[in-house]
Amino acid sequence: MKKIKKGKLAIIYAIISILLVLAGCGSNQDSSKENLDNKQKVTVQHELGKTSIPKNPKKIVVLELSFVDALQGLGMKPIGIADDNKTDMIEKLVGDKIDYTSVGTRQQPNLEVISSLQPDLIIADYQRHKEIYKDLEQIAPTIELKSRESTYEENVDSFKTIAKAVGKEKEANQRLDEHEKTIAELKNELKEEKDQTVLPAVVRDTSFQAHTSSSFDGEFLEKLGLKNAVQNKEAYAEMNLEQLSDINPDILILANNEGKLLTDEWKGNSLWKNLKAVKNDKVFVVDRDLWTRYRGVVSAEAIGKDTVKLLNEE
Amino acid sequence: MTKRKHPYGILSAFLVLLLIVAIISLGVGAIYISPLDILSNISGTSQNNTFILYNYRIPRMIIAIVIGASLAVAGAILQGILKNPLASPDVIGVTKGAGLFAVFVLIVFPTASILVLPIAAFIGAAVIAIILMIFSYAQGAKPHTLALVGVALGAICQAGIQYFMIKFPDNVNTTLLWLTGSLWGRGWSEIWILVPSIILIPFIVIFASKLDILNLGDEIAVGLGERTKFVRYVLLSIAVILTGLSVAVVGAIGFIGLIAPHVGRRLVGSRSKFLLPVSGTVGALFLLIADTLGRGIVPPVEIPAGIVTAVIGAPYFLYLLRREQKK
Fold this sequence. Notes:
The complex is a heterodimer. Chain A is of the alpha/beta class. Chain A contains 15 helices and 13 strands. Chain A has 2 domains: 41-167, Nitrogenase molybdenum iron protein domain (Rossmann fold, 3-Layer(aba) Sandwich), CATH 3.40.50; 192-312, Nitrogenase molybdenum iron protein domain (Rossmann fold), CATH 3.40.50. In chain A, helix 2 crosses helix 7 and helix 8 packs parallel to helix 15 (297-312). Chain B is globular, with a radius of gyration of 20 Å. Chain B is built from 15 helices and no strands.
């Protein structure tokens, strides 16, 4: 019996030593990859430090939609996008069918696919991809920028950082000037009476999430001269019907989720019927992707046009 | 329980199966790598997929095997000590306890060193284990009571994790993965956390016979010269360490600790000497298959391994409950 036991032990330790040897191989592999030729590089400051990027990167992988928007604004197209497997969402954002590889979901982008694309630059979201920064850095120079729950201003900053990273700062400044002009024009066009408050919100089957003055769409609407009904430092605020009727905004802009909606239940309620926005027929339903998912300079302009069109209709 | 005829044969058959599945798993993912290609990459004659293999597939394979085995062995030990077929780290809430403490550390001390995480997970697992021991000893709890208390404790911990998720949405991505359990983004740096498990598993297999003596009942065990309390605490600590470390690396993956020991018992009977290594191998196989499936079903999207184990495991758990009821 004892002999057999020893034999079994030997097998187990053999397996362990194989595993440890494999572990050794793995770590050796990492270091050999790094010493590539040091051509000209650009150093970019981002949320997780500084990264040097080879000049004029061509192959770019992006892990959030706002970065697709930013590249679009600079006249570039990413080769890989974390698109949650929704090609039509990207098509709508870019306005055209583009050739790219899906790298999985924004929540769990597929590192294998990213590495197989051999990118020159990876643009990741600070909130979602903090944890895998090291893994991404192993594949290619990575910058982590604010996108998820970011404000409009933060998005413009990200746009500038991306422009620096891809060597298109001039184009970016031009584009931003143009952007400011567009906003000024839209602001003029908007025939809304002053002192009206607006509240954009995302409606799902069980929640009504107000987007405050610090959210991307909320802050952008303020830039157009529409005061947000909820002035808050937190970007989003979950609300029930009573809270909503307490705030009672003049204009409601609803970005509805797919499927059943909480507001459908509210419609029969007298609190809902007595909302100023409902009484004055100022409840507008807008595209969820455009208003809350894309978040970028180009989509902001589209949001602005959308707003002018909706509010000026009457 | 009947004693089956060829425990060694079964064990080696499963080890061979594990090896085969391991090699297949290396090929599965968003980028398919053929077994031949894998071998030429490992031997160094080809370089085309080396980066993917060494940076993602191989560390994930090792993590799946070690953690699958850890959870299964921990489950087998707990079932033995508590004399309860429903005891396993996830059913009795130990996994969720470890998860809660780990999430707490991740969120409140984001700059803490990587060593703090496994320690926190261990403490979380230990706290839940102690509460459970108090219940099971003070009241002489029946199998179902213990499972219920565990479910309740697990729910409390889950609520805690959810609180952190709402309070600190910045880290939602991390905490979400913790709740289901996933091997996504895990690599060599996480394997270092598992080194104690790699040492403990063979150690516990050697001392498996102690568990059998405990199973004879305390009086006989004392009569046989065993320090029952001491042995029981050592075994329990090992189970808690194995669970805590596993959770620290991949989050709360369920059902492996429950099912693997049951499969093991069906194959080789309840003698711990055979039960522990066979359960461990089955557990490793289970998690490895779950992770491989999660990676391979809808690439490039990954399904967290915890969801796959739950889909397979939950029906089996119900079946077990029914069988226990009939007894």
